Structure formats: C-alpha cells, structure tokens
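Chapter summary example: a protein plus flavin-adenine dinucleotide.
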Amino acid sequence: MSQHDIVVVGAGPSGLIASFEAARRGANVLILEEDSVVGKPVHCAGLVSVKGLSLLNLHGDYIQGSAKGAILHSPSGLQIRIEARRDVAYVIDRAKFDQTLAKRAIEAGAELACRAKALKILWEKMRVAGIEVTLNGVRVEIKAKVTIDAEGARFKLLREAGLNPPKLSLLYPAAQVEVEGADVEENMVELFFGEQWAPGFFAWIIPHREGCRVGLASKVGMAKTLLERFIKKHPEASTKLRRVKVKEVSGGLLVLGGPAPRTYKEGFLAVGDAAGHVKPTTGGGVVFGGLSAKIAGEEAAMAALRGDREAFARYERRWRKIIGGELKWMSRLRTYLSSLDDRELDHLFASALKLKLEEELAIKGDMDFQALTMKKLLKAPRLAPLLFRVAMGLAIETFKTSSEVRGEDSSTAVENV
Ligand SMILES: Cc1cc2nc3c(=O)[nH]c(=O)nc-3n(C[C@H](O)[C@H](O)[C@H](O)COP(=O)(O)OP(=O)(O)OC[C@H]3O[C@@H](n4cnc5c(N)ncnc54)[C@H](O)[C@@H]3O)c2cc1C
C-alpha cells in the first residue's frame, strides 16, 4: 500500500493539467495511466481554439497547423463559409500535446505511473479514500486524500462513486483517419452534414501541415463504415479525398450530453470527459476539460494540504460558473440539431445564407463560448427570424426531452465506434 495526497486516474489533458496545478502547490501527486505511453493511441482531431489554449496558458511545439475558419456543407450541397481575418484555431498533435503536459506535471513534482490500471475505488466509511490498481500486473492499494477521476468517456469510477454520468443517449461513436494527399483548402476546416453521411452529427476534414484528419461521428450506425462511405461516395468530399493514402485509423466516443449532474463526493472529483466537460455541439473537450482541470487541481490541493472539506463542493461551483451555462445551452442546441432531418437542415442553411450569418459569425464567433456568441448575434436585428426559429426548435426539443430518464446503457455506443 502507498499513501499520496492526490491520486489522478488518467493521463489525458484533464488529468495532467489537474496534476500540474496540484503538484505546483506542493501536493504529493501520483498519476495512473493504463496505457504504456502517454498520448497514445490518439482519439482526437486536435482542433482547439487559439483563445482556449491561451486561457489555459499552454505553449509548446505541438502545433501542426491553424485554421481561419470553416466551410459548412449542407446535405444538398449549400455552403456557408465563415472566415475570420486571423487564425481562430490550432491543429495540434495530440500525442505531443499530452506528452508536453505530462512533462510539465512531472517537473512540478508529480509522479507518473504508466501501465497502471485503476480497478476500483477504496472506501473509508462514506468517503473515497483512494484506488485499487494493477501496477505492472500486481494489485496495489493506493491511499489518497483526494482521488481525481480523469478516466475519459468511460464513467466507471464516476458510477462507482455513486454519481450519475452525462446523458448516455448523446454519447456518439466517432471514427477518424489521418491521411495524406487530400486536395483541400489550407487553413479552412470543412464540416459536412447529412443523414446518409453522419446521422445526427457531421463529418469533418481538418487540414494541417503534414496531412489531414478526416472523421465523423453519428447517432446511429457504425462510425467506421460510415466514414469509409463518406470518403468514397460523398459528392463533394470524395473528389477532395480521391487520392488520399490512409496513415492511421482511430476512433472514440464523443460526450455530447452535457455535464454529469454532480461531479464530486468527499475525497473525489471528476473532471474532463469523465465529468462531461465537453462541448455538446462539436465534441471538443480539450479546452473545457482543461479549464475545469485547473480548478480541480487547485481545489484538490486545498483539500489535501489544508484539510479544507469545502473544496470538493467549491470545485463544482467554480467550474459551473465558468462553463455550466454554456454546456447547458449547447446540450439543448445539440439535441435540437441532432433531431433535424436533411430538409430541415437545408432550410436552416438557406436562411443563414440569406441573412449573411457568416459575416456576423466571422466577427463575433467564439468556438468555445457559443452561448455568448448567440447573445452577441441577438444584437443584430436582421438575424432575428433565424434565431427565433432556432430558439423555437430548442424550446420544443427541451420540452420533449425534459422527461427523459438518465442511466441509459452506453454499450451500444461503444460497439459502434
Ligand atoms: C474522434 C474524436 C475527435 C475529437 N476531436 C477533438 C478536437 O478536435 N478538439 C477537442 O477539443 N476535442 C476533441 N475530442 C474530444 C477530446 O479528445 C476529449 O475531450 C479529451 O481527450 C478529454 O480529455 P480527458 O483528459 O478528459 O480524457 P482522455 O483524453 O480520454 O484521457 C483519459 C485517460 O485515462 C486513461 N484511463 C482510462 N481508464 C483508466 C483506468 N482505469 N486506469 C488508468 N488510466 C485510465 C486513458 O488511457 C486516457 O489516457 C475528440 C474526441 C474524439 C473521440
């Protein structure tokens, strides 16, 4: 048995940012990672906002490219081009990014154990008191004053702690390939909508200096099969991708159901994908997970070093203050968007084009704080008809889903990756 101030399960960005924050405050931190190398395998498209990385105060040599905006393709081929004058997003090498974060956490004093799989929570009365783990094949008990659950989109420890996961019906399987030889525009991300390509979500093409990431997520069907079909058959995308050579195949789950209803317990904090700190509109979780992880690390250190039992509840209050409203609004928008059929999506595209929405978005858009963007757009009276339609759709979907019960089985989503 070993004793630590804080044990962190998962060396993804959320676990590593939380570890850094706690370790630099003097806490004795142990990070457990079940894989043998941090950052691999990669399950991410690596698109993060310039603003988000700066909010997280992160710098490193993991940037592979940048984007000034996006081209959105409707099911029938309408195009909305949103292009800012400056870079709004970076394309990062996720393996390098995670490894840089690991190095930073270790330099701050954290200890990292790879091939260390957390098995179950250790309890002391009603309090989480650490983790039982297999370390190089041996079962070990690790006692800690605080356990941080950053295990990603699995929710195993969260459930074991007696907490409900994010809405599982909005856990979408995703597939992605890293390719070279695509005939695409530099510095522009492309998103393709349509029921027959990516039902309930969209497909993406993200160019970077060394190639391109092509992927999709969907609410039904096998993501990998849908992706193969998209690359070969989509009228527009297939011409851009006809000469590509696939270098790497990956997949994963997008957590689109908003945050878990509660993310703490005495001795326990959940963060990142494990807590649903992911934008339900796009599936991007690096920035919101990172912002919550900073708070988790700070509050975990307060609990472990000063015995501050209020720190657990304060963690939840603090992250909700920053991203809670955004996540709530975006999960309603996701439910609404996922419910639209091709005809309705095309209609929305046509209205947006007619009202020149792209011009406003290029100036006022924020990749992360999308509810804030909506508020800014509301100040442009000419957009009122479109925004009113979306608002009505949101209201209807919210009403329809308000009686939905939580606790659905996530196994179907896992099988469909
Ligand atoms: C296909 C795809 C594309 C995406 N694209 C983007 C994007 O472009 N931009 C963006 O911002 N987000 C994107 N995301 C989401 C993003 O990848 C996640 O939000 C982000 O990785 C969450 O970080 P995390 O640290 O919470 O979890 P993770 O990165 O999932 O890390 C969890 C870690 O915990 C480890 N672990 C799990 N269980 C255990 C255990 N029992 N014991 C020990 N270790 C364990 C795992 O091995 C893993 O290393 C994408 C996701 C997918 C699936």
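Key point: The radius of gyration is 21 Å.
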